[in-house]
Specification:
- Helix content is 50%, strand content 17%.
- The chain contains six helices and seven strands.
Amino acid sequence: MAELVTLSAPDLAALLCSRVCHDIISPVGAINNGLELLDEGGADEDAMNLIRTSARNASARLQFARIAFGAAGSAGMQIDTGDAQAVATAYLANEKPDLVWNGPRALLPKNQVKLLLNLILISIGTIPRGGKITVTLEDTDAKPRFSLASAGPMVRVPPKFLELHSGGRPEEPIDAHSVQPYYTLLLAKEAGMEISIRTTPEEILLTAS
């Protein structure tokens, strides 16, 4: 894994905040639309269903972001992979791919768990038309290894992630759309893990160890 370009701490924080806002603006907007329908006295049941679904979606995205992007406790804290599985399952309920999770429940350093969740986001981007993401955790008691296999129609590695992973200097500055791939690679560096990419016409396999 090649050397990363450098972002200042304030720029990184601002871009991650923009990313989180981008993720929740759609379900929050849908909640607002449902409330407007209620105010207008229109289809109450449809409006309430829209509000309920969108509120669950917004909550799932915020809980995922709290671990994937947030401080998630004090420095050196460990995170239960069972919690990571729970927030990932709720998040994927609102996305096209299905999620399969294999491996033991364990307490791991927070940067490793944050890396795992961010690799799930990368994996979602590898199968934009949907499919299946299989997450496998191995050797969690000694030297953890994460494998994420994505299978679906027209699989491809997100170009920005591939560019940053290969060490290419981005043609455009890191922005709110590309900060998540950048942050994934930064987490790998902080966690002391290497990310490898293997591609076939049917599957993309991301491995961190």
